[in-house]
Amino acid sequence: VLHESQKLQVLYESLEKSIPESLKVYGAVFNIKNKNPFNMEVLVDAWPDYQIVITRPQREEMKDDLDHYTNTYQIFTKAPDKLEEVLARPQVINWDQVFQIQGCQDSLKEAIRKISASKSVRVDYVKTILIMTEMPVEPNDDHVDVMEKGSFQNISLDPSHAGLVNEQWTFGKNDRSLKYIERCLQNFPGFGVLGPEGRLISWIVMEQSCEMRMGYTVPEYRKHGYMKKTSVHLMNYVIQKKVPCYFHVSEHKEEYNQALRDLKFKAASCGWHQWKCSPEKYC
After folding, report:
1. CA distance 164 to 215
2. Which of 22, 70, 159, 257 has CB 3.0 to 4.6 Å from 15, enough for a Cys bridge?
């Protein structure tokens, strides 16, 4: 476990050289270095010549065996062949809980598959497109057709918006995800757009590894550029603050993917990967 701020800074600068594959860990280390609001820690297999880096909540945070939102591990490896041995150790991952592994490397898949099979753990795997940008971006006038008329307003989100965000989040819609979203909004930026009636119509939220997630626009306000406006607003904010910024999008959302390409966001070839692991006793 790396505790010293100097070592964390050295690791952070090293991980930067492996972006985009290291993004989930890189973003988590950024937050660990900066107040560490989710009480996470960094594990390496060796120092300074590491091959595997894992970020995870400290043990006292993972007290709910069913809370896979909190029980999330981010992994980056330079040696996929060594990963199975490391992940199998109980002091590294608690395989008796429901948890998630997130990363930006397809090469994590084989080690997770082998260990989960040996431990009778069910794995639900999701792969999406990893989106990133390195430069501040601004929408062209034709990207937002009614935003500038004065009846719509950009706002910063707070925990009071968690219920609405939770209702529409594909990975959420339950009490544990609600608590997770509230915690994200207490500690990280979230931005949205208010419609003429004063209700939230579009939003996006940052989480503990600096990824922007939970993006949504209510159906009647789609195809008007509100999500593009919100995404650009948040992206420029985090770039100005020198916070890592990236997010993932389903391969099936072609219209949204085209909008991102118009704004010069780029898709990383490595993809975004998540494994939700559930011990047999919880299935």
Report:
1. 12
2. 22
Residues 6+ apart with CB under 8 A from 283: 122
Residues 37-52, buried b or exposed e (16+ Cβ, 10 A)? ebebbbbbbeeeebbb
Cis peptide before 219 (omega within 30 of 0): no
Tens of pLDDT along the chain (283 residues) come to: 999 999 999 999 999 999 999 999 999 999 999 999 999 999 999 999 999 999 999 999 999 999 999 999 999 999 999 999 999 999 999 999 999 999 999 999 999 999 999 999 999 999 999 998 755 555 444 444 444 455 788 899 999 999 999 999 999 999 999 999 999 999 999 999 999 888 999 999 999 999 999 999 999 998 888 887 787 788 778 878 888 889 898 887 666 666 666 666 788 999 999 999 999 999 8
SS3 152: coil
Residue 101: helix, strand or coil by DSSP? strand
- By DSSP bridging, strand 200-206 and strand 99-103 are unpaired
Q: Which two tokens stand for residue 271?
A: 């993809």
pTM to 2 decimal places: 0.92
What's the half-sphere exposure (Cβ side, CA atoms, 13 Å) at 138? 2
**Domains of the chain as residue ranges with CATH:** 5-128+272-282 (3.40.630), 134-264 (3.40.630.30)
For 163-189, give the DSSP string. Answer: HHHHHH-TT--SHHHHHHHHHHHHHS-
How far is residue 220's CA from residue 238's CA, in Å, rounded to a whole number?
A: 29
CA 195 – CA 246 distance, rounded (Å): 26
Sequence-distant (≥ 6) Cβ neighbours of residue 157 within 8 angstroms: 165, 185, 189, 190, 191, 192, 200, 203, 205
